[in-house]
Amino acid sequence: MHTADSVLIYRQLGNRMSSASTSASDASSFSGYARKMAHPKSNMNIHLDNHFKSKIYTSSSPISGNVTITTQRDVRFDSVEIILLGVARTRVDGVSSPHESSHTLLKIPMPIPESSYPVPRVLEAGREYSIPFNFILPNHLTLNACGHRVDSDAVHQSHLSLPPTMGFVQGLWEKDDLAPQMATIEYSVKARIYKDPEMNGRPLKIMEATEPIKVLPAYAEEPPLNITKNDKLYRMTKTKSLRKNIISGKLGRLTASAPQPGAAFIGPDGKVASNTAAQVELKFEPSSPDVAPPKITSMSGKITAHTYYSAGPISSFPNLSDFNSGFSIERRGSYSTSVPVFSSPLDNITWATQVIQERRDSGYATESDARTDSEHSAPERSRRGSKQLHTKQARKSSASASASAPSASASPVFHAATLHVPIHLPAAKRTLLPTFHSCIVSRVYTLTLSLTLSPSAGSTASSSSTTLSLTLPLQIGVDTAGSPAHLRLQQENPAGLPSFEAAVQEAEVDEFLRPRLLSVPDVQFSRDPSALPGYAVHG
Questions:
Q1: How far is it, in rounded angstroms, from Cα 366 to Cα 387?
Q2: Using one digit for the tens of pLDDT, what is the confidence trace for 180-213?
Q3: Which end of the chain has fewer CB atoms within 10 angstroms, the N or the C?
């Protein structure tokens, strides 16, 4: 009985304590809410006009809005800063710790007139202040954005182009932009409130707000790359010897080659504006005339995005050199990922048989040279003997004949075919960034075309198939000329204010077409016969 009474007493005490604790918690929450209502928290927000989360800004796009400020108590300040900021960041894993670098690409301050500041410069509690701003996204960066040493003017010019936003992992894009965590490019509108220090020093930052934006600048088509044997990233030509099986003799040699395809373009909204196409040239050189060309069974293609990043400035085009050779010294890295674009069988390939033409002009030149040597070398024959000269002429004739005429074992014919391959960009599931090069981050693309073939058109299904692949450079640009955003911008701005580059170009054209006055100069020469001709005095 004593135990039951004790348990009952403990339960009642516990319920009372729990009720008291709940009441105290509710009272505390209410008092905190009351204090929050009585003294609202200091807040600083950036509001962009006509902005939404997935909106993309391109070259010459206006970025306008206002900064609102509210405080919970009177705050004294000295200045407000509103800037359009672009920063590239990289992280390279080192031996002991990762090395992080940042490079300020763009920093445009918004001038704030003195009339916008309150007098005195005190933010009163509970009052909302609004400061408007207006930026225009530039087409190019300033010269100060790239001040390091470069290998060529082309590299410097590329580094002055505005790079796009990069960083799907950081949440900057809704779809995968094929970029690694080690490289990001961020754009934002940033607002800060400063207070001057009492003593000499840096201004004290009181409040700060940031609004990120997505940037996809315009990129025009560049000239084709000059690919050399040192550029390991690309393979424009591939040759492979064909056999029926391992122990059989060679059926012939197949060579596939392709030039760089034209650039593919996306719009400023990230959607595909125009696709491109590749043209593959096939040449089969059989070992004998009765060997049929191989059967191309299928073809597939993939687009690979190559992202290069470095802790220090990049002085060359990373895709046209062995970029990773100085990784341990210069702290650099690369990241590649692929997206398949098509895979389809091929049935109707038309081979054209062509006859190898002999170079008869070389033979005529050899006979003429031999005749000339025999006519003008009589004194030499008397010294060296005719036998040595005859041996030299025989070697020259045989070498010329072997270079001009085909060998006896080679086939006098070859087979050629051309494949037209349309390429569609996978923009529905990926965010495709344009091809660009900046000081510490670069992005290029390659198009890999793989041909699956049987050694001969008459081979059986059990015959082993082989694959021949080409890796071509692929440029992706951003076209804003006929985009809906560009047309909407023209409607919003019917005056059509030109960009700085367009204004400079128009001024150069006006200067070139400016009328010129041509007249005979009024020059009178002295008739003094004693004066030298070169020192005649002009009238």
A1: 19
A2: 999 999 999 999 999 998 777 788 999 999 999 9
A3: N
